[in-house]
Amino acid sequence: MKTDDLITMLSSGPDVRLAARPARVTLLPLSAGLLASALLMWLLLGLHPNLAGEVLLPAFWTKLAFSAALAWAGWLAVQRLCRPGARLGGLPLWLGGPVLVLWCAATVLLLQAAPDARAELFWGRTWRYCPLLIATLSLPIFVAALHTMRGLAPTRLRLAGAAAGFAAGAAAAVVYCLHCPELSPVFVGFWYLLGMLAPTALGAAIGPRMLAW
Q1: Rounded to two decimals, what is the model's pTM?
Q2: pLDDT tens for each residue of 52-68
Q3: Residue of 30, 54, 85, 106 with fewest CB within 10 Å of its CB?
Q4: DSSP the chain
């Protein structure tokens, strides 16, 4: 190597960019995790008996869109946190936006509902086990996300683990929509979110150990 070439290389600084990975390396484990979550839901819970009727209701699609939007935002956070030096940018907006929109809709619904109907809108019939089921269904996706992230270069390990847990929890909520009988935005905005935050907390706790280089 010529001296001038060496000086040019050193002055440009180290190249910290990650080599591009084939899409299948990322998509296959995540798809397998999502499929395992769906299979687990089908075997343990089954589809909602009136699912064909529910898909005709706007409330069903609101529930599904809320969960899917948070799953997408969570995966976007995972991708950013696996790149050293990548900026988080508008991630707080993408993560908080769906929650804020649904909470506004839930507030309007509560204000319009009769006082004796408000408790039912919040508690529903499945609040005792809804968050637990979402957290349980998230485990295959969570494992797949951690496996994928270990092949990359996360530096903020606790935050990256939390992002993996949140993305997995939100994706599991999408799957759980096919079983859940609840349609109230008030219920979904609290109990679904609680179910997503459980794997988020787990990811924050084990991220430094599981994602260490």
Answers
A1: 0.86
A2: 999 999 999 999 999 99
A3: 85
A4: --HHHHHHHHHT----PPPPPPHHHHHHHHHHHHHHHHHHHHHHT---TTHHHHTTSHHHHHHHHHHHHHHHHHHHHHHHHTSTT---TTHHHHHHHHHHHHHHHHHHHHHHS-GGGHHHHHHTTTTTTHHHHHHHHHHHHHHHHHHHHHTS--SSHHHHHHHHHHHHHHHHHHHHTTT-----HHHIIIIIHHHHHHHHHHHHHHHHHHS--
